[in-house]
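Homework-ish question, so no full write-ups if that breaks the rules, but can someone show me the predicted structure for this set?
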Amino acid sequence: MDVSQYLEIFVEETKEHLQSLSENLLVLEKEPENKDTINEIFRAAHSLKGMAGTMGYKRMQSLTHNMENVFSEIRNDKMKVTSELVDTLFQCLDALEAYLDNIINTQDEGTEDNEPIIKLLNDFLNGNQAAPAQAEAPAAPAQQQTGASVSTKLSDVKFADFEKHAMIEAGKNGMNVYGVNVHIDPNCILKAARAFLVFKNLEELGEIIKSIPSTQDIEDEKFDLDFSMFIISKEPLDKVVAAVKNVSEIKDAEGEQIVIKEEAAKEEAKADTAGHSNAPARDNSKPAQAKTSSKPVVNRSVRVDIEKLDVLMNLVSELIIAKNGLVASNAAEQIQHSQNFNEQIEYLERVTTNLHESVMNVRMVPIETVVNRFPRMIRDLSKKLNKKMELYMTGEDTELDRTVIDEIGDPLMHLLRNSADHGLESPEERIRLGKPEVGSIFLDAYQDGNNVVIEVRDDGAGINIEKVRNKALEKGTITPEQAESMTDKEIIELLFKPSFSTSEKITDVSGRGVGLDVVKSKIEGLGGDVECHSVVGEGSTFTIRLPLTLAIIQALMVKIGSEQYAISLGSIQTVEDIPVEEIKHVQGKEVINLRGNVIPLIRLGELLEVPDTAEDAENLTVVIIKKVDKQAGLVVDSLIGQMEIVIKSLGKYININKMISGATILGDGDVALIIDANAIV
Amino acid sequence: MEKTANNDISTNQFIIVRIGNEQYGINIKIVDNIVRMQQITRVPKAQKYFVGVINLRGEIVPVMSLRRRFGIEDDEFTNATRIIIIKPEQQATVGFIVDSVKEVVTLEEDQIERNSISTDAEGQSYISAVGKYKDELISILNIQTVINDKEQA
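A: Not a homework solution, just the prediction itself:
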């Protein structure tokens, strides 16, 4: 069978299932009794097996099959989840990922059979079977036990008021109420169809009043191998059970007559009406739980090639440029156009802005897709480094442009490894310092204006400023004089210099000296920046700031001499009129005191070597820009206004200074350069 | 469109441009377009020979002055001044300001002298060969050295 056309889907879905497995395994390790998780895992493993089989990847199928066996044992409570087991299962996931990589690269799963892992899995299975093997002799009683437990379950079932009412009425009319547990054969393919036949047969005998899970769920095959139903019927119990067993591929069914005492029901009803107390509340909470655990799969979506989105984005950019041109010519020609014309232009502006936002949104991917592999990584690191640590993540749903998402994984991973390796102390050390033994690493993402901020924080030792200073001296990065005068912050900045690692021992986790500078250059390549704050003894925070979009931004247009420049609105705090006499000088630099903050002034005209800037007027127009906690005032000649601009690259051959982040085409067709405020502060 | 047509016929067609008193040939294969002088936006702190960037049908194209590149006195833009838009590779465009564009000529192999180029003198390396066309000498530009040498501004 030619399956190549499904390959893409297979790869995507396999990735999703692997991810879900990895996440749920972590949960399972912490909560070995969590049935929902086990079911979720089982489902994912089962789908994986099925998909691999369909695509003809036999090795992958065999591995997942063995995994599924293990999960099945766990699910049936025949096996305990241990840390070793989870380790092995993670190895399986790694092996599956390796298969997947092979498939992506060569369309073939490769020849690795992964027998050691399969053997390990089987050892777990066998070792496990050995334990219940002792209990194998009384297997029948065990089964009976389960039967008993099920039947107690049957009588434990809570009924809604109307159901109780119907049952009581039935009792009065000489009818019987039965509960039936139906077990479907594990090899059954169309479970829902079998269930439907059971329904049909039972309906011939009486009235079905309730089923667990709900009828809808059964129709959707949202159940495992058994379900229960309650029926009101004149017929004896045997006949009802026989009717169920009549359906093929039904392994077993047992029934029980249910007697609802009218008084008890009344009492309960009273209690219910008395305070709308527990019973209905519980009833309500149950389905809610069920809903959250079975994730809705009805998310209608289309997979689109990212290149098509790029084309769309370019077209939107062109449209915005054309729109700007129209607005500019309308303003320039000074002809009194009809009211209608102006209204239409305003309408066009709104539409293009909305269009741009929609296209951007389509390109946005939650950061989750990158960070969801980190819990697993931290778990591995924890074992490898012999440090206890826990990763806390927030804001996984924060969205970033797809191109940024693709690039941000490695830098984040590096920062996390850094925190785990250098940041957190050893458990003994932590206990000595009176800190909790388990170290915490936090990864927080949130949107801040036009930026997305990602923080990697740990509660470890913090950065030892003296150590960095000495190291820098030793390496000759700075001179002794410099070392004297540098602030702590400047010292920390040294960490981002190439080939600078202070870890005394080099591990394979981090510490090869190709760390933070790579992180920095990668993030700057994405138009963002990274900073570090650290308090000795309390931990360090690395803050990554990324632009929300790489293509279209709102900007303030300013005039310097005869040239126009754009400054991203996202980095502008305020615009001030400053009288010349308020300029003070500190260490030969111009500063202003703005509402208690001393802000350095930067004369853009001089910085950009603009010819013939305007003479100093009495008042200077100062654009205050802000980057995290640093501010600067950019002196410009005049303001032009706010505009939506499309960022374009300046091409390959021209060397541009870092403070120019690109160029844009104005409404009249002229080109204006975009000033990167972050590079100036 | 014409460009592709020419491509198929011959790879030895050259656009002859004038800079000062000299004539230079640019292989027509890599010429994307020839446009009139237009508004150029200065780019601060770029290489000195880059005059700035222009808007070419919605694309930003950096423009260099061949005069500045060759160390001749600066251009004085006239009505004849043109910008030759060069596209040496996909997604990379650059413009050359020249005093004027003369004509397109076809040079046969025997009209091109490749060995007489001495690279000792400053600027000579910008030329890959010398073409002889009707009694005149045409310096054929070595585009790669012209655009790639990123001297510090």
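Now go work out the reasoning yourself. Hint: Chain B touches chain A at residues 39, 41-47, 50, 52-55, 58-62, 64, 91-94, 147-148, 150, 153 (CB under 8 Å).
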